[in-house]
Write a structure and sequence with these properties.
4-stranded mixed sheet; Cupin_8; globular; single chain; binds 2-oxoglutaric acid; JMJD6_ArgDemeth/LysHydrox; JmjC domain-containing protein; JmjC_dom; alpha+beta; 2-oxoglutarate-dependent dioxygenase activity
Amino acid sequence: MGLNIGGRIEKVNGYELNYTTFVEKYLSKNKPVVITGGLMDDWGACRDWVFDDGRPNLHFISSNFGGSKVQVADCGSREFTEQKRYEMSVSEFINHWLELSSMEHGNHSPSKLQEYPEYTAYTTPLFFHDDWLNLYLDHYHMHEDPDTDQKRDNLSCSDYRFVYMGAKGTWTPFHADVFRSYSWSANVCGKKQWYFLSPDQRHLAFDRNMKSSVYDIFEEVSETIFPNFKKTIWLECTQERNEIIFVPSGWYHQVHNLWDLLLGDYEEAREYIEDIKDICDDFEGLCQRNLAANTGMNFYDCFNFMVRFSFANIVQLCHLARSSQFAKWRSSCKAQHLIFNLKSTKDIAIKMKLTCLSENHNFSLDFRSILEEPTFLKLCIQLERTYDFIHDQHPQIDNTKKYSMDDLVDMGSLNLFSTVVRNPQNLVTLIDQTLQNLITLAGVNEIESNITI
Ligand SMILES: O=C(O)CCC(=O)C(=O)O
């Protein structure tokens, strides 16, 4: 049975959030939020632990922190309410990761940050400064046991500051944070999927005696032991790189490290043939051929797809703008949907620009010749029917329909017919200009509110 997802965690821009608003809207309401920009800009971790293309710099981590002992959880085996754990050094963990890609979490055990006082990995954002637990634990022990002879040196103080590292597919089981504290978690590299259960639903994930909770929300949950689990309603969130999530008190959560499909498959295909790199004339070409053979598309196929799909959405949007009065089309669900598609393809293009397709490669798609492709016209017709159907506008079946120059509204300075896309940045610019021109044509004030989808 799939989870019943009731909504997504709100995302706010860190540049636009102030402390008072954070306290009023999230902290005091015990409401989770993701803060997207500005809080991690000058972090050493973002600079040193990740390459520009988003891959983790395991070499840096291993050579700078390799000797530290960490707890490593094996996602495949359960021990009571947790994953089975092993202790090893960071460099042993990284070697395991590279060999197996199946272990989770170099979970730096308490005080490890204090092992590197000269290295500043991060600075605590203002929103999370008021941290009673860590402030206290920096100076005191929570529990002094006279029977155990604990060493009282600086490093023996424990705190609740951790670094989690894990390969694709690794995950952290369902839990709430220690002492029901509030926490925050910054994502330096990769992508995480979070599933949240609010405190008022917590009892639904427990057994009748409220003793034990579900371990993995995606496994077959026993109805006999957890009779109410099927009533749970979840909030989900995809946490991207450089985003910080605020996890309020008592919110249970399960977290998965996601696999970036095409990029991950590319890295796998590349690693597989890395040893013939030096004797191969066109190593990158071979990587792309292997990627296509294994995954069904390579970077160029994906970009071709995005460009044609964006062109088809632009044609539809222009067609809609032309066939109805601006005032009507801009608020229609169909226009909103097309604009949403364009914004999504723009996000993908930005990602491709940063991670896989550089400016310098041999690629060129021009609007005019695509518009003349019979297959492209069929794509446009099908797209139109799809959104008519979704938005309940009775589609007119006209197989002879042609989209032509005349269907495209006059975009002012943007001449769609001379548009040539050679790289992801060109696509980003085209989408920005198209939306901007349509906004201008429709009247700035009125469309702005519609365009925030
Ligand atoms: O990032 C993760 O895998 C787990 C993070 C988490 O659950 C937490 O910080 O409480």
